[in-house]
TrEMBL record:
Annotated signal peptide: none
Source organism, top-level taxon: Bacteria
The species this protein was found in: Niveibacterium umoris
A Pfam short name: Ribonuc_L-PSP
Name of the molecule in the record: Enamine deaminase RidA (YjgF/YER057c/UK114 family)
Alphabetized InterPro entries for the sequence: Endoribo_LPSP/chorism_mut-like (IPR013813), RutC-like_sf (IPR035959), YjgF/YER057c/UK114 (IPR006175)
Length: 165
């Protein structure tokens, strides 16, 4: 892990996370038998993140029963958590070349069809933080249930620069 001064990406992440009450310096851990992230070669795989702030779930329930804006807020929290995990794993977001793929799962009411609009909130953060390389592939899917009744779950796959010893 790098001990150099925070980059502008790291500072931007810190500011965006603070807006939703997320502390990016708190260690993110998984339960036994899986990892929050795996770095293999120069690809970082980040496990699905639900909109947890501290030990509380920030947005629960089905999109369409919760407002579109609340679902979008859930997506922002999820992607910020994923980026905070990336930072913890690789030391600084300066090593993040780009997000290759984002999967967005939206717990949806039967008639809710705005999964893409929910996912846009997370894409906006990735694009702003990583521009000009903020574009990414994405899938947004409506699902019947998510863990802990979360409204959104997001996982990421990212390209990473090799560390400099």
């Amino acid at each position: 892990m790098s001990t150099s001064a925070p980059s502008s990406r790291d500072e931007t992440l810190r500011q965006l996370a603070a807006e939703v009450g997320l502390d990016i310096d708190t260690p993110f851990r998984a339960v036994p038998r899986y990892e929050v992230a795996v770095l293999h070669a120069e690809t970082l795989y980040i496990s699905g993140q639900i909109p947890r702030v501290g030990d509380q779930l920030a947005v629960c329930g089905r999109a369409g029963e919760v407002s579109l804006e609340d679902a979008r807020r859930a997506a922002r929290i999820c992607v910020l958590r994923a980026l905070a995990i990336a930072r913890q794993q690789i030391g600084s977001l300066d090593r993040l070349v780009r997000v290759l793929r984002m999967n967005v799962f939206v717990q949806s009411a039967a008639d809710f069809t705005q999964q893409s609009e929910v996912a846009d909130a997370a894409s906006d953060i990735l694009y702003a933080l990583l521009a000009p390389d903020g574009g990414h592939t994405r899938t947004s899917v409506g699902v019947a249930q998510l863990p802990k009744d979360a409204t959104v779950e997001i996982d990421l796959t990212a390209a990473v620069r090799p560390s400099v010893a």
